[in-house]
Amino acid sequence: MTYSDQTTRQKIGAEHPMRAAREDKGGDGAGTKSDTGTITRTKPKTQKPSLYRVLLLNDDYTPMEFVVLVLQDVFNKSREDAMRIMLHVHTKGVGECGIYPYEVAETKVTRVMDTARKNQHPLQCVMEKQ
Ligand code: TYC
After folding, report:
1. Which of 29, 95, 105, 113 is most buried, judging by how many CB atoms fall within 10 Å of its CB?
2. Which residues have C-beta atoms less than 6 Å from ligand 1?
């Protein structure tokens, strides 16, 4: 079969199984340009990142004032909120410092662990997927 024998539908590729599958999808705001096969998005699609809770763990040795300073410095808490969170961790054993996208959470955990180690405190900070 020569190129000119092809039907218009075949030329635009409407019967190509992959293309048909793509065109059938729809519903997510994604559009198709059937002449080139290029898929263009018609509706802007913002994707929300997975969030992680950053938690402080209690221990018997880290000074309360050190924990309050860490909460103010690393988690941008007010003195009052930092005190409240520290006392929550002190009494309950664990407490939330904030909820962030993965890389932000990871950086905060690292900052807490680094500053605790430098100051020879056993303070532990972890993150968990929300
Ligand atoms: N329990 C510690 C003390 O009595 C204070 C403390 C609070 C330690 C919170 C860690 O994440 C922590 N000095």
Report:
1. 105
2. 56-60, 62-64, 67, 86, 89-90, 123
The lowest-confidence range among 20-34, 54-68, 109-123 is 20-34
Nearest-atom index, ligand 1, CA of 90? 7
**What DSSP assignment string belongs to 47-91?**
-PPPEEEEEEE--SSS-HHHHHHHHHHHH---HHHHHHHHHHHHH
Confidence of residue 28 (pLDDT cuts 50, 70, 90): very low
pTM of the model: 0.71
Average pLDDT of span 38-61: 90
CA distance 78 to 103: 23
Q: How far is the CA of 58 from the centre of ligand 1 (A)?
A: 5
- Helix (H) / strand (E) containing 21: helix 17-25
For residue 125, give the DSSP letter.
E
The minimum-distance atom of ligand 1 relative to the CA of 61 is 13
Distance 17 CA to ligand 1 centre (A): 63
